[in-house]
Design a protein that fits this description.
With about 400 residues, this protein is α/β, with parallel strands linked by helices. It has helices at about 5-15, 25-35, 55-70, 85, 100-120, 130-135, 140-145, 150-155, 155-165, 170-185, 200-210, 250-255, 265-270, 275-285, 290-305, 305-315, 335-345, 350-360, and strands at about 20, 40-45, 75-80, 125-130, 190-195, 220, 325-330, 335, 360-365, 365-370, 375, 385, 390-395. A six-stranded mixed beta sheet has the order 1-6-5-2-3-4, sandwiched between helices. A five-stranded mixed beta sheet has the order 7-13-12-9-10, sandwiched between helices. Strands 8-11 form a two-stranded antiparallel ribbon. It binds one RNA strand of 82 nucleotides through helix 18.
Length: about 400
RNA sequence: GGGGAGAUUCCCGAGCGGUCAAAGGGGACGGACUGUAAAUCCGUUGGCGACGCCUUCGCAGGUUCGAAUCCUGCUCUCCCCA
């Protein structure tokens, strides 16, 4: 392990990009004790695997968790296989559809794949909250429920609004914050991370830990990442997101194409680059340099150094990249252009593919194909480009034997 | 329980018997310009190997040569009164 930084230095690094550390005095105390006793802090992050569609917005908190690891602390990642079935009511104006355990488990696998790429294995503990919720008896559930009052639950706006507007609140939704808080008790968390929308849930964890005779955790909230449109929060519904499983080239291009006003935020929340360096990059006359750093750094996390560097160089040189493109398999060397675009997943219908071709948005190895009736001859390794930032590499599938 | 309004293509929203694949706006996508940014301009926005054909206007029937438009029933949503 590298040399241990002082509590003050650690705090300064950890505060980068965060909205709130509360209570901050307790954070300082915990860090000081950790340095003095050489004991890592247990830093909890709970994730409900409610969707297989992960985007960079989900990565912000993971990134912060990693920063804790880099300072020698222990990451405790909780997969909410039970809480996921309840559904977090935070920010919801109606009861969520409940998920089945199979779905939750499948989503969890996807999530873990990416989480492992970002976090280091060393100080990592992965727990599922079904581990303690599944075997609970009704009596134990009642015991837990007795720790919370209805008034405290109704303090939070989403519940209050629903209650006042007579929108139903199912009892199981009331349990959600309690469950999340109990997770903190079970893993004896020193710190818990979450988005700003998690403020209430995080504080319930503190209260419960105190009830169970533990030292309460410190809560850290992080901003919700703004989407590529620069306005609304990143979300699938607004179609302003960058998926984590995006082909590297696409991810690079999307990151490069974000509005200038967003560059500083993205660098702060998605990379480990220090604040002074970020300021310098963003105040430079040519902001493209900052975008280049951002795109390279983020892509490196997901696709590896080699692909990221290759993309960076191809961008600087204006050439077609060697690495990082999505592959499209074709079994014939001659194909109708419309079908090629469709099979690459760049159009959902022939009509749409035709339009793209007619509008001059489709090119093969840099040569624009404008006739939608055209059959093209393919060679293995050719690059298909659609629009400004959708690319794919052609792979001819050879029939064996 | 009583009374009223409405369900239109991704979203909002016109259309009220043929000229409707359905105005307009938003969004999205493509092109030009640029810095693969913003702004601006132009174009596209149901499907089909496609100048023709097929399927769309809550659901199911009916009237008509012809229906998103008229009639009947059903489902759902919203508002007012109790």
């Amino acid at each position: 392990m590298k040399k241990v930084l002082s509590a003050g230095e650690q705090l300064a690094r950890l505060k980068k990009g965060v909205v709130e550390v509360f209570p901050e005095e307790e954070m300082v105390a915990k860090l000081e004790r950790s340095v003095a006793t050489k004991t890592p802090l247990r830093v909890k992050l709970g994730i409900d695997p409610t969707t297989p569609d992960l985007h960079l917005g989900h990565i912000v908190v993971l990134n912060k968790l990693r920063q804790f690891q880099q300072l020698g602390h222990r990451a405790v990642l909780i997969i909410g296989d039970y809480t996921g079935q309840v559904g977090d009511p935070s920010g919801q104006s109606a009861t969520r559809q409940r998920l089945r355990l199979d779905d939750v488990n499948r989503n969890a696998e996807v999530f873990l794949t990416y989480a492992r790429r970002l976090l280091s294995d060393g100080e990592l503990e992965i727990r599922r909250n079904g581990e303690w919720f599944a075997p609970m008896s009704f009596a134990e559930v009642m015991e837990l429920a007795s720790k919370m009052t209805v008034a405290r639950l109704l303090e939070r706006d989403d519940f209050k609004n629903r209650f006042e507007k007579n929108v139903p609140i199912s009892l199981h939704e009331f349990f959600y914050p309690l469950m999340q808080g109990y997770d903190s008790v079970m893993v004896k968390a020193d710190v818990e991370l979450g988005g700003t929308d998690q403020r209430y849930n995080l504080s319930v964890g503190r209260a419960l830990q105190r009830d169970f005779g533990q030292e309460p955790q410190v809560c850290i909230t992080l901003p919700l990442l703004v989407g590529t449109d620069g306005e609304k929060k990143m979300s699938k519904t607004y179609n302003n997101f960058i998926r984590v499983d995006e082909p590297p080239k696409t991810m690079f291009d999307k990151l490069f194409s974000i509005p200038d006003s967003l560059v500083q935020t993205y660098l702060t929340l998605l990379t480990d680059i220090e604040e002074t360096e970020i300021k310098r990059l963003c105040s430079a006359s040519d902001i493209r340099e900052a975008k280049l750093v951002l795109a390279t750094d983020v892509v490196k996390r997901f696709a590896g150094e080699k692909a990221a560097e290759s993309l960076r160089e191809s961008y600087i040189g204006g050439t077609i990249p060697e690495e990082g493109l999505k592959d499209v398999e074709c079994d014939s060397e001659s194909i109708w252009i419309v079908n090629l675009v469709k099979s690459a997943g760049f159009a959902s219908s022939s009509s749409e593919a035709r339009r793209l071709v007619q509008q001059g948005g489709v090119s093969l190895d840099g040569e624009t194909i404008s006739n939608p009736e055209q059959n093209v001859n393919l060679k293995d390794g050719m690059v298909l480009k659609v629009g400004k930032n959708r690319w794919a590499r052609i792979r001819i599938k050879r029939e064996k034997k």
